[in-house]
Amino acid sequence: MVCTTCGRDFTPKASGNTLKNGTPHLYYDCASKIRKEKNSCGCSLPARKVETLIIDTISAIGRDKKVIESCVENLSEMKRVSTTPIREEIKTLQSELRQKLGELEKWKKKVFSVEGALAKELQSEAEAVAQRKQELEVQLAKRTLDIRAHEQELASSKDIAAALTNFSAIFEELEYPEQKELLGLLIQQIRIQKIDSANARPNKCIIGHRKSFYEMELRFTADAEQIAPLKNALPKFVELKSLASRKGFEPLSLG
């Protein structure tokens, strides 16, 4: 989180007071203020206000139907790429199985056309081919199930909608390391600028504190686009979908 007023980073700092539940009251102070520099900009914001605004901003982005549709499109590509090695293996198994089926028919004809010791020897060869055929069929069935299971692990459009539109509620259920990981996937930089209230721009994230006003800008990953970072975070949303279901969150209607 960068202070664009002086170019320094913001650092979390405890005020020494606590909330009613005993949680320390944290602030984000500009490094120049913490170091008590001569030309300090004095920027200081309550951490809870900043964090709430960040989550609300991401939640608002997630309500955009185009974002969800883009995530679903990316999901389809993820499914295709992630199962390609398995599908290639299945093709190889199917090819070998067709070959063994042809061999088995030939061995059966040979066995029926001869008698005695030679017939027994041919029968043994035919049984070996039949055994390999069974092994191939088992492998094919297993790999087919692997593809189905893998695709089920990836979120559907409904799952993505549930995670995105309830981002703030789900976010609160995550442990701090998970929260940090998820935000890191989405946000490249947070820029804070101290402004006069008269200069506040419409549709911008404004934080008011102690008669001072600050404008917050979220710079998302992938060239500050809104859709791309959410697509990048899809693996995490896959995990969030089960949490959304357990908590009974309803997804946004895609109709």
TrEMBL record:
A Pfam family that the UniProt record links to this protein: Zn_ribbon_recom
Top-level lineage group: Bacteria
Domain Recombinase zinc beta ribbon: 1-58
Coiled-coil segments on the chain, per record: 90-153
Entry keyword set: Coiled coil
Keyword Coiled coil: yes
Name the record gives this protein: Recombinase zinc beta ribbon domain-containing protein
Lineage summary: Bacteria, Pseudomonadati, Verrucomicrobiota, Opitutia, Puniceicoccales
